[in-house]
C-alpha cells in the first residue's frame, strides 16, 4: 500500500524500520544516510555508558584530530592569516574513505608537532629578545640594583621599599617608551626601568628580594663605564641577531599555516561528519557472532524507497556479497512528528513548533497559520505606507537570499529567517491599509464619497457641519475618505474596529474549533466529536455566534425610526434576565434569546459528563469481555491462577498467554500505554470544560487587541506626521526648504524605527499570542515527539563553530 | 452603484475564486498548501471588506467637521 502523499496538513506517515548491516560497510551506510537526512536512529544501547560503546576509540581519535584542527585555527587567528571559507551549500563532500581519514589524522598529527615546535622556538627566541631589550635600557642608568618592572606595580614597589628600608634609599626610575611583548600570550606590557641606591650589603640583598618577588627582572650592571659601554654593544648585537632569526622562524611558521588555511575548513567539515557517523554507529547494537550491526530507526514512509536504494547502492559499491537488509516493523510506539517544510513554509511552521510539537498526525496548525498569522498582524498594522516599507525589505531579503544568508548578525538573521513571513505580512498590511484608507496616516480618495456636506444659509466658516449620506450609493472599497479628519472620526472608527475584531475573532476561533472535529474523525474517536466538539461548538455559537449575528443584523437594518439597540447591553441582559428586552431589535427576540441561553447552559453538563462516562462504560464493557491492558496482563494472569479459577471466561491456556506477552513486550516500553483511571479522566474533563467555557468569553475579549493595536498604530502615525512633516510643510521661504528637508528625514527615520520596526514587532507578538492561545487552545493537542533525523546538513547548521569556517 | 447587494455579489466572486483556487492549484507536494493559503486569504480579505462595507451601510453617526472653509471663488 502506497501511503498518501505527505502534505503540510498533518505530519508525515512514519515507519519504524530495522536495518541489518554488515560491519564492514556500517560507516559508509550511515554516512550515506546522513547525507539524505531522513532517518532518526533509536538508541539500542541506552543501558551502556558512553565509554562502553563499540566505537568509542574511533570517536576519541577523531576528537583529537578535531582538537588539532582547532589548534591550527587558533594559530592562524594569532598570526592573522585568513581562513579560506567554505560555502556549505555549494561544496558537498563525498563521504571520505577510511583511508583518507587516517591520512588526515596522520597529517594533522605531524603538522601539529611542527607548528608547536616552531611556535616554541619562536616563543623562546622572543623571550630572550625581550630580556636583552630590557637590559639595553637598564644599562643606561647607574646604580647598585638595577632592573625592569611592570609599570602597574611601580607604586606598590616604591611603597614597600620605603617601608622596609625606612627611607634609607635613593630611587630613580624612568619609563620605557615602547611597550614590550610578552611572548607567552602575545600581550603588550609597559615597563619601567629603575635604579635603587642604598648602602650596606644587607639592604641591597633585601631590595633584590623585594624586586624579584614583585616580578621585576634584575640585570647586573658594571660600575666601570668602559665595561658598561662594551656591555651595551654586546647586547645590541645580540638583539639584532635574534631579530633576524625570529623573522625567519615567523616566516616559516606563517608559510606553513597559510598552506593549512587553504583546506582547513574542508578538513573540519569532514572530521565533524566522521565523528557524527561514529556517534550514530554507537547507537546500533553490534552482533559479535555474526559481525552485523543492527539498527532501529524512524523514517518517513514515503522515503523508504529512497533509503532502500541508497543502501543498495552503497552495498554494490563496496562489492559485498552480504546484502544490507531493511525491513519495516510494526510497533505501538508513538512515531515522531515530522512536518515537511520548504523555504516558504519553514518560518510559519517554526511559529507553531515554538509552542509545541503537534501530536503524530493531528491537524497541523502551521498550514492555516501561513495566512491567518500575517492577516491578523495586518489588521493591527493597517497602513499601506508602512506596509510598502515592510514589503520592500522582505522582497530585498528574498531577492538577495544567497548573499544575505552569509550575514552573521543575530538580529538580522532573525529577520532574515522570517523573510517570507514578512512578505506575507507586508502584502496583507497593504490590503488592510487600503481598507482602513491609511497611507502614512493620510487617506486616498479613488472613489466618490458617499457623504456630502450641504452648505445651508446660516452656516458660517468655523461652525460645525454634518455630512449627509447618499440615498443609494455607498463607498465601495474600505473606509470612506470623508471620515478622515472628521471630528467624530474616532467615534466611528472605534465602533467599526471593535466589531471588526469580534467578527474576525469569532471566525478565527470557529475555524480552529472545526479543526478539532477533523482530529476527532482522524483518530477515530467519535466521543471526542460528540462529547467535546459538538457541545463546545453549540455553546460557543449560541453565545458568540449570536453576538456576531446581532452585529451583522444591526448593520444591515436602517435605524432612522426606532432607536438602535445596544448590543453589549443586549448580551448582558440575555444572561442576567433572560426574556426581558431593553430596546427591541427584531421580532421574536425574547424567544430566540431564551432558547439560546438554555441551549448554552445544557451544553455544560454534556461537556462535563458525556466523555468520561462514555469512556468508563467502554472500559468496563471491554473488561467484561475479558480484555486486559497489555502491561497488566502478566500480573493479572498470575492472580488468575489463585483467585479466579472459577471464572467462566477464563483464558484457556496461561502458558500461551504469557508467551504472547513476552513476545509483544519486546517492543513495549513502560510509558507507552496508560491504565484507565476514571477519576483522572473526570478531572481532566472538568478542567477542560471550565477552561473552555470561560475561555470562550475571555478569548473573544482578547481579540479586541486587534482594535486596540490598530487604533494605537493609526493615532501614533497621525501624531508623528503632525509633529514633524506637517510643520515642515507649513512654513515657506528658505527656512521652509530647510525645515522640509530636516523634518522629512526625521519623519522617515521615526516612521521606520517606531512605526514599522517597533509597532511591527508588537503587532507580531500580539498576532503570535492570538495563534498560540486563542486559536490553538481550541484544537491543538501538542504532545508529539519532534522528528530529529540524523542529517549532516542539520548537524553543520546547528554547530556553532561552523559559523567560523563558512 | 454600490449598495447592499454588493455584499452578495462579492460573496459570489469570492466563492468562484475559491473554487478556482481549489481546482487550479499546482499539483504536487505543495498542492494542499496552495489550496489552503489561497482560499483562506480570499476568505479573510472578503471578510475584512464585507465588514467594512456593512459598517458603512446604515451608519448611525455622520461625519462632522468644524474646520471647513468656503474658499473665495468657490461655492
What's the gist of this structure?
The complex is a heterodimer of chains A (806) and B (75). With 806 residues, chain A is α+β, with helices and mostly antiparallel strands. Helices cover 60% and strands 8% of the residues of chain A.
Helical stretch count of chain B?
2
- Detail the poorly predicted runs of chain B: none
| Shape designation of chain B | elongated
Mean of residue pLDDT of chain B? 88
Largest interface: A-B, 64 and 39 residues
Distance between the termini of chain B: 27 Å
Strand percentage of chain B: under 5%
Structural class of chain B: mainly alpha
Report the structural category of chain A: alpha+beta
H and E string of chain B: HHE
Q: Total strand count of chain A, please? A: 14
Notes on the structure:
The complex is a heterodimer of chains A (806) and B (75). Chain A has 25 helices and 14 strands. Chain A is α+β, with helices and mostly antiparallel strands. Chain A folds into 3 domains: 176 residues, no CATH class; 120 residues, Alpha-Beta Plaits, CATH 3.30.70; 311 residues, no CATH class. In chain A, the strands form 4 sheets. In chain A, strands 1, 2, 9, 10 and 11 form a 5-stranded antiparallel beta sheet that branches. In chain A, strands 4-7-3-8 form a 4-stranded antiparallel beta sheet, sandwiched between helices. A two-stranded antiparallel ribbon of chain A has the order 5-6. In chain A, helix 1 runs antiparallel to helix 7 and helix 2 packs antiparallel against helix 6. Chain A is extended, with a radius of gyration of 40 Å. About 6% of the residues of chain A have low confidence. Chain B is an all-alpha fold and 75 residues long. Chain B has 2 helices and 1 strand, in the order ααβ. In chain B, helix 1 runs antiparallel to helix 2. Chain B is elongated and about 65 Å long. The interface between A and B is large, with 64 and 39 residues.
Amino acid at each position: 500500500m502506497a501511503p498518501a502523499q505527505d502534505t503540510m496538513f498533518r505530519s508525515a506517515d512514519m515507519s519504524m524500520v530495522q536495518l541489518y548491516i554488515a560491519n564492514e560497510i556500517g560507516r559508509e551506510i550511515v554516512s550515506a544516510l546522513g547525507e539524505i537526512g531522513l532517518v532518526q536512529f533509536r538508541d539500542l544501547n541506552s543501558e551502556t555508558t558512553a565509554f562502553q560503546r563499540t566505537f568509542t576509540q574511533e570517536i576519541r581519535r577523531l576528537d583529537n584530530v578535531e582538537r588539532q584542527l582547532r589548534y591550527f585555527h587558533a594559530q592562524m587567528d594569532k598570526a592573522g592569516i585568513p581562513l579560506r571559507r567554505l560555502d556549505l551549500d555549494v561544496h558537498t563532500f563525498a563521504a571520505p574513505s577510511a583511508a583518507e581519514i587516517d591520512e588526515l589524522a596522520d597529517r594533522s598529527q605531524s603538522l601539529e608537532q611542527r607548528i608547536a615546535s616552531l611556535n616554541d622556538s619562536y616563543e623562546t627566541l622572543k623571550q630572550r629578545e625581550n630580556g636583552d631589550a630590557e637590559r639595553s635600557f637598564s644599562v643606561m642608568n647607574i646604580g647598585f640594583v638595577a632592573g625592569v618592572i611592570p609599570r602597574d606595580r611601580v607604586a606598590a614597589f616604591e611603597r614597600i621599599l620605603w617601608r622596609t628600608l625606612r627611607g634609607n634609599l635613593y630611587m630613580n626610575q624612568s619609563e620605557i617608551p615602547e611597550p614590550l611583548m610578552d611572548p607567552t600570550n602575545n600581550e603588550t606590557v609597559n615597563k619601567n626601568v629603575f635604579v635603587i641606591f642604598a648602602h650596606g650589603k644587607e639592604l641591597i640583598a633585601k631590595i633584590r628580594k623585594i624586586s624579584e618577588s614583585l616580578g621585576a627582572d634584575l640585570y647586573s650592571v658594571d660600575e666601570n663605564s668602559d665595561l658598561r659601554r662594551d656591555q651595551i654593544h654586546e647586547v645590541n648585537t645580540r638583539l639584532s641577531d635574534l631579530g633576524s632569526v625570529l623573522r625567519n622562524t615567523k616566516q616559516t611558521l606563517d608559510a606553513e599555516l597559510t598552506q593549512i588555511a587553504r583546506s582547513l575548513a574542508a578538513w573540519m567539515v569532514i572530521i565533524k561528519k566522521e565523528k557524527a557517523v561514529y556517534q550514530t554507529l554507537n547507537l546500533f547494537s553490534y552482533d559479535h557472532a555474526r559481525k552485523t550491526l543492527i539498527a532501529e530507526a524512524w523514517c518517513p514512509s514515503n522515503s523508504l524507497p529512497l533509503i532502500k536504494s541508497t543502501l543498495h547502492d552503497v552495498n554494490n559499491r563496496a562489492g559485498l556479497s552480504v546484502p544490507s537488509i531493511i525491513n519495516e516493523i510494526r510497533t505501538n510506539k508513538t512515531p515522531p512528528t515530522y512536518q515537511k517544510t520548504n523555504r516558504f513554509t519553514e518560518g510559519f511552521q517554526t511559529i507553531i513548533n515554538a509552542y509545541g510539537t503537534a501530536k503524530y498526525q493531528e491537524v497541523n496548525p502551521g498550514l492555516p497559520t501561513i495566512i491567518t498569522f500575517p492577516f491578523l498582524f495586518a489588521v493591527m498594522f493597517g497602513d499601506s505606507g508602512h506596509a510598502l516599507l515592510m514589503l520592500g525589505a522582505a522582497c530585498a531579503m528574498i531577492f538577495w537570499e544567497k548573499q544575505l544568508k552569509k550575514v552573521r548578525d543575530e538580529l538580522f538573521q532573525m529577520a532574515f529567517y522570517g523573510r517570507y513571513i514578512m512578505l506575507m505580512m507586508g502584502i496583507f498590511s497593504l490590503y488592510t491599509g487600503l481598507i482602513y484608507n491609511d497611507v502614512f496616516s493620510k487617506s486616498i480618495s479613488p472613489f466618490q464619497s458617499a457623504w456630502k456636506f450641504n452648505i445651508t444659509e446660516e452656516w458660517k466658516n468655523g461652525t460645525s457641519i454634518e455630512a449627509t449620506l447618499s440615498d443609494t450609493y455607498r463607498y465601495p472599497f474600505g473606509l470612506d475618505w470623508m471620515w478622515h479628519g472628521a471630528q467624530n472620526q474616532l467615534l466611528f472608527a472605534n465602533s467599526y474596529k471593535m466589531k471588526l475584531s469580534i467578527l474576525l475573532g469569532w471566525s478565527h476561533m470557529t475555524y480552529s474549533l472545526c479543526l478539532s472535529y477533523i482530529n476527532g474523525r482522524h483518530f477515530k474517536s467519535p466521543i471526542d466529536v460528540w462529547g467535546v466538539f459538538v457541545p463546545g461548538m453549540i455553546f460557543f455559537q449560541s453565545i458568540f455566534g449570536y453576538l456576531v449575528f446581532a452585529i451583522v443584523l444591526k448593520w444591515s437594518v436602517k435605524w432612522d425610526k426606532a432607536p438602535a439597540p445596544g448590543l453589549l447591553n443586549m448580551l448582558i441582559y440575555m444572561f442576567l434576565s433572560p426574556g426581558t428586552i431593553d430596546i427591541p431589535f427584531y421580532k421574536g427576540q425574547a424567544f430566540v434569546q431564551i432558547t439560546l441561553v438554555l441551549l448554552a447552559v445544557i451544553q455544560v453538563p454534556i461537556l462535563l459528563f458525556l466523555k468520561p462516562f462514555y469512556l468508563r462504560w467502554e472500559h468496563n464493557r471491554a473488561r467484561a469481555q475479558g480484555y486486559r491492558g497489555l502491561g497488566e496482563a502478566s500480573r493479572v494472569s498470575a492472580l488468575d491462577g489463585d483467585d479466579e479459577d472459577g471464572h467462566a471466561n477464563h483464558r484457556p491456556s496461561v502458558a500461551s498467554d504469557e508467551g504472547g506477552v513476552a513476545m509483544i513486550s519486546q517492543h513495549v516500553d513502560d510509558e507507552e500505554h496508560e491504565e484507565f483511571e476514571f477519576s483522572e479522566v473526570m478531572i481532566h474533563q472538568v478542567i477542560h470544560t471550565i477552561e473552555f467555557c470561560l475561555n470562550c468569553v475571555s478569548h473573544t475579549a482578547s481579540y479586541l487587541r486587534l482594535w486596540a493595536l490598530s487604533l494605537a498604530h493609526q493615532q501614533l502615525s497621525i501624531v508623528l506626521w503632525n509633529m514633524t512633516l506637517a510643520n515642515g510643510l507649513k512654513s515657506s521661504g528658505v527656512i521652509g526648504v530647510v525645515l522640509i528637508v530636516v523634518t522629512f528625514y526625521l519623519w522617515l527615520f521615526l516612521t521606520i524605527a517606531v512605526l514599522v520596526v517597533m509597532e511591527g514587532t508588537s503587532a507580531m507578538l500580539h498576532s503570535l499570542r492570538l495563534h498560540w492561545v486563542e486559536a490553538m487552545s481550541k484544537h491543538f493537542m501538542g504532545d508529539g515527539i519532534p522528528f530529529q533525523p540524523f542529517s549532516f546538513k542539520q548537524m553543520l547548521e546547528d554547530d556553532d563553530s561552523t559559523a567560523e569556517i563558512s | 452603484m454600490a449598495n447592499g447587494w454588493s455584499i452578495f455579489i462579492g460573496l459570489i466572486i469570492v466563492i468562484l475564486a475559491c473554487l478556482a483556487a481549489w481546482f487550479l492549484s499546482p499539483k504536487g507536494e505543495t498542492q494542499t498548501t496552495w489550496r489552503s493559503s489561497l482560499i483562506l486569504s480570499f476568505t479573510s480579505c472578503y471578510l475584512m471588506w464585507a465588514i467594512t462595507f456593512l459598517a458603512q451601510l446604515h451608519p448611525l453617526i455622520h461625519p462632522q467637521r468644524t474646520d471647513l472653509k468656503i474658499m473665495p471663488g468657490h461655492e
